[in-house]
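writing this on my phone so excuse typos. first protein, seq and then structure
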Amino acid sequence: MTLLLLEALGAGLLFVGIIWWTMFSGRPDGDPPAATEEKKDQTS
């Protein structure tokens, strides 16, 4: 029973670790500003 709980805990930690890694491994400065808003400002 203890082995089953440890295995479930390990799988959960691995799952959370993968989610955390993919959420915060993007661009260092975040997303760039939307290009569509810049084009709208220039055409007006």
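second protein below, same order as before
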Amino acid sequence: MVMGSAIPDYTQVSIRCDNLASTQTQSDSLSRRNLDLMERFRHYLWLERGLSENTIESYSSDVKLFAGSILPDEVTLDNAGTEHILAYLAKRVSEGASTRTTARFLSSLKRFYTLLAREGLIDIDPTALVEAPKAGRPLPISLSEVQIEKLLLAPDLESPEGIRDKAMLELTYSSGLRVSELIALTLPQLNRTAGVLKVNGKGNKERLLPVGDIALEYLEQYLQWGRDTLLKRQTGCDHVFVTRRGTGLTRQAFWYRVKKYALDADIRQELSPHTLRHAFATHLVNNDADLRVVQLLLGHSSISTTQIYTHVATERLKELHTEHHPRG
């Protein structure tokens, strides 16, 4: 869990909780005992776990929903049983909660009851034997090779922004960069002679990536005149991809450009900032690249993360079979 960037004013947190207690309505069905337990939980999350106020609010809200929506008036949080937990989760699912959301609800309750058990407020943790639902990993959004070609042809090469964007798109698709790696790329990280670049990935892990000939060609064009035109002799910025303000391009700006070019290329499906990275990996797998090599290129610490692209390739084969086979 990420630590909060600043220590919240917990006096205000306590005041809000007290205000909550003073304005309870009958419809809340929250006893004074439940409120005391929830306040204890909030103190634990802040004082011992050091969580941010937003995270504390999220966990507390889940516990409050459980207390208010499933427990009968005579049952308080510290004497609820496993049957109450299961009934609550079933209710959330029937209301349309996703597997991921249901798992988060259960995680909040497990944290809460772990605290109560640790402090001797309950003898048996009602969540101990309740397993979280297994969330199926969503397949990454990718594009076909034809769609990628259309996207890469979209930038206007007559403008410095256009040649910059062309180089960015080509480089991302050629090397499978994360957006964060692309926009953070600096001139010393490029070895244009060898056709490789060095990136600092997640966990500050360095890796060397090959750059394809086409990407190198447009990168050279951009560096020879596009970048200097954008900078207008401004110095001090060593980012590869820059703006007319003399600063590095932001993640949001890159995402905006991708969406613009997708519309220009008549690509209407939903995209993500990592669409080109996903296409890079999917197309390698489609063309029989070794999965371990793809893992190294993507900078994945585990091969299981890379294996998702085999599922993407399988799904694409199914779509083609359905579309083209007479009995598909």
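Residues 164 and 311 are 33 Å apart (CA to CA). thats all i got for now
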